Amino acid sequence: MNVLMVYPKLPVSFWSVEKLCRIRGEKAVQPPLSLLTVAALLPREWSIRLVDMNIRPVSESDWEWADLVMISAMFSQRSGVREVVSEARRRSKKTIAGGAYPTLLPEELLDAGCNYVVRGEAENTISLLLKAIAGENSPKIIESAAKPNLADSPVPRYDLVKPGDYAIMSIQTSRGCPHNCEFCDIVEMFGRSPRYKEPGQIAVELDTLRETGFAGSVFVCDDNFIGNRDRAKNILERMIAWNNAHGNPFSYLTQVSMNLGHDIELIDMMTAANFGDLLIGLETPDLRVLKGIGKTQNARESMVDAVNNIKKNGLTVMASFIVGFDHEDEHVAEQICSLVEQTDIPIVVPNMLLAIPKTQLWKRLEREGRLINVRDLPELTFTEINFKTMRPHAKIIKDYRDIWTRLYEPSRYLARTYGYYTAMRPTRRALAIAKGERPPPERNVARKLSMNTFRDIKSLLFILWELGIVSACRGQFWRQILGMMRNNPSRLRLYLDKCAYGLWLAEMRNLVSSRADIMTTKCRAGSGSSTSAA
Predict the structure, then answer these.
(1) Burial annotation 361-371 (CB, 10 A radius, 16+ → b, else e)
(2) Rounded (5°) CA angle 324-342-508
(3) Residue among 202, 121, 211 at smallest CA distance from 158
(4) How confident is the model at residue 443 (pLDDT cuts 50, 70, 90)?
(5) pLDDT tens, residue by residue, 508-530
(6) Would you tell me which of 63, 177, 399, 412 could form a disulfide with 224, CB atoms 3.0–4.6 Å apart?
(7) Quick check: pTM over 0.90?
(8) Which long-range contacts (CB under 8 A, 24 or more apart) does 507-511 make?
(9) pLDDT tens-place string over residues 310-360
(10) Residue 362: enclosing H or E segment and its boundaries?
């Protein structure tokens, strides 16, 4: 059996960082870990070819070679997956779709022409799928109510991709989240009891990834890495030992909940394991809204204190916020911006609320008769609210735009970045040297050595040109460079990395502004999506 795995193209978004990838000669951010995992579950005698359409299109020879087409897709790839299914159907290729989008809306994929849709996780559905492929009278929707034990999850097939094509690589240590946020689909798909791989499995996956020759950033793409803190600590202990034994070839980034900010021991373990960036859903500073949406973990203790604890102890917060919640304060944009500026968070992910199918929010809005445009779910950064809002829709769009405009004004962004990294403690190595103690092993040796490569030199020269020569903020940039060298030189690399990210975010700021103009025009024209439930 020749299996063609296809990952549809992702739209331009906050996360696509296309400018940074172009600068470094990379083609996409990260590989499709879902397909790499599924590939490892398929029969060994099957031949597998993976085409990530963010790297290249599906070729004529790919189509001719394939006996079976397997697709994984998120909601943001909705249009792309339909195009792939349509082409496969035109060529009479049997097609299977899985992932978040097919799991939550399987009927749409069947209507589009898929032969089978897989709902849920591959580890406990792959045997059902193989029986369906071999049989004639199998159900079109393949699913299992049970949640698989991740001890049964295989090492992903990293050999199916070229690591050099990607900015980062990916592993996963757990699925699920103990929290019950109304708007989130994680609980619906993976449950509220986090399930973890064994520490030994993680070590084997890191060995396999290292054998590909990759060295750099690895995204631990858990729904909430600290969902079970004891299990997370066990994995961190194994990662620390693995890193030290192999010369620290990787740095890590992941997703966590805000309560990490009140667990200094866990923060310290994460920095010891070479974690750096953390995506945290702060969502809103409005405590009443947080309690209303079930995000009570963010309402128990001070957000400012949590962020400052994480910052001072060596980790970078990437904060996600949402506008459009019921009963939110009309000054929510100002509140969000003030919180960000008070804590100097460099990278912020502003969003407008989207009712994702099958979530608690979706079900509530459906009961209240407030869902609209349900057949036209939007894409990531350019989300259009798909329900009747409590506040005027046009005002929510304006708040969304204002957040982007204010936070990513280049001078403000540079100031926050400088403030964040001057407040961060020096690296462990720098602290030890300052005390006259024997320093710990160099962190991320492989990546540091690669600074002499053409790719890294090109990136550095681009940053210096764009921010130090061309930018209207060049004076501020050079002053901050000198300040970092004087006040916290061991964090200079992190500062420069985030300065580079700001170049992409400045582009996104303009794109968001243009998109907001379009959405506002639709509101003024009286389209259904502008309706208020107030």
Answers:
(1) bbeebeeeebb
(2) 55
(3) 211
(4) low
(5) 999 888 888 888 887 777 654 44
(6) 177
(7) yes
(8) 507/19, 508/14, 508/381, 508/404, 508/408, 509/404, 509/405, 509/408, 509/409, 511/12, 511/381, 511/382
(9) 999 999 999 999 999 999 999 999 999 999 999 999 999 999 999 988 899
(10) helix 360-367
Residue 368 neighbours by CB under 8 Å, 6+ apart: 533
- Structure confidence by residue, pLDDT tens digits, 189-248: 898 889 999 999 999 999 999 999 998 999 999 999 999 999 999 999 999 999 999 989
Strands 47-52 and 68-72: unpaired
* Domains of the chain and CATH, by start: 2-143 (3.40.50.280)
Least confident of 66-80, 418-432, 456-470: 456-470
CA distance 242 to 501: 29
CB-CB contact of 235 with 212 (8 Å): no
What is the token pair recorded at 496?
Answer: 């420069």
| Residue 444 and residue 250 in contact, taking contact as beta carbons nearer than 8 Å | yes
CA distance linking residue 446 with residue 411, whole number of Å:
33
User: Which region, left, alpha or beta, applies to residue 159 given φ > 0 means left and ψ of -120 to 50 means alpha?
Assistant: alpha
Angle subtended at Cα 70 by Cα 191 and Cα 98, rounded to the nearest 5 degrees: 20
Q: Which DSSP string corresponds to 208-271? A: HHHHTT--EEEEE--S-TTSSHHHHHHHHHHHHHHHHHTT--EEEEEEE-GGGGG-HHHHHHHH
Q: And the tokens for 320?
A: 């996600």
Q: Give 468-530 as a 3 state SS string.
A: HHHCCCHHHHHHHHHHHHHHCHHHHHHHHHHHHHHHHHHHHHHHHHHHHHHHHHHHHCCCHHH
3-state secondary structure of 394: helix
**Residues belonging to the chain:** 534
pLDDT score for 445: 44
Q: What is the per-residue pLDDT across 366-424, written as a single tens digit (0 to 9) for each?
A: 999 999 876 655 555 566 788 999 999 999 999 999 999 999 999 999 999 999 999 99
Find the helix packing angle between 474-487 and 492-524, rounded to 10°.
140
